[in-house]
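Milestone M4 deliverable, item 7.
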Amino acid sequence: MDTRDKRYMAYLDIMGEELVPAMGCTEPIAIAYAAAKAKQILGKLPDKVVIQASDNIIKNVKSVVVPNTGNLRGIKASAVAGIVAGDADKVLEVISCVGDQGRKEIHTFLENNEVIVCKSNSDLTFDLVVSVFSGESMASVQISHFHTNIVLITKNKKILYQNQECEEIKPTNLTDRSMMNVKDILEFAESVVISDVKDLLEQQIEYNTRIAAEGLDGDWGANIGSVLLDIWGDDIKVRAKAMAAAGSDARMGGCSLPVVIVSGSGNQGLTASLPVIEYAKELGVSKETLYRALVVSNLVTIHQKTGIGRLSAYCGAVSAGVGAGAGITWLHGGRFKEVTHTIVNALATVSGIICDGAKPSCAAKIATAVEGGILGFYMYQKGQQFYDGDGIVKKGVENTIASIGRLGREGMRETDKEIIRIMIGED
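Output delivered:
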């Protein structure tokens, strides 16, 4: 792919938009970011906070530990952390610098001030409004569609910023992903000038490897990474799963180390990268080969998630585990035929794992998703594959990916509602 090709620049832009650092689960951090921004607009510490959140945000924030809060969980803790001790200018690392004094102030604020959480009336899957009040003054910040997309800022009922056309708030600032396809992704991976992606990928390798090591060394969540290694040993197939799971163990347990996310998710960022990194070490490939394999894994993950959407009842770790399988195939010398069959085999195996919010069991789902990706590769290596008509498998990788997009976006919509009702205790 020529560097002057518009597809080349689009794929570079997509990687730059998606591979960004974040500390903590991205939904709580989005709340902290909106809250910190609202407090910044208000210009003082509020005495009342109201958070309106869509069902999927409520689902993803309910059970996860918010970093740097002293093991607090949930929406209220996320918002108050951003208000009391956050730095809005750090965006998804908004609460990365909270110290002991900040943690005390978070607890004090929660004990002494009114913090209200309610469901958003919006039909959007991702919609969040944080309003802060001090006496007669108020400010609000609305984030919609994705984690950093501020669409409305008000102060004392006056609009300070609005991303609005024809009275309908629309997402902006993201490169069109509808042009993505596996053939072009592999062509881009083969031809990309390494200096164009090196910094992004080095940060992904450094950050995600570091938090995975912490997940193995410490006591985080259900310690899925450690359990895998303790029971099944350090075979490469086990290490690939264990490293990704360990990163999630730490992240879901409230570890303050940052990760490089993919498709708006740290868990997906860990899953798409760490198995590929482990296989690259095992195979002794060059750094350039690792970079190109990570390009494959990241972009295949993003391509799948484009059809599903940012938040869904379909577990995003599946998309990333399949992406990792594609990257591992690339490391073994596989190209279009081998990669596409790996993707289809993996999707036929692990699609349908539900997302019931961010919490320790995400690490176990990650391990399962990575195993599906690895199995997809080894199946085709042994001359085995799933065919058109085997369940939701369609002829051609793009048709199968489209089927999965439809399943996650449309087919699991009612499943998502039922999961949320179960989680919040509604009959």
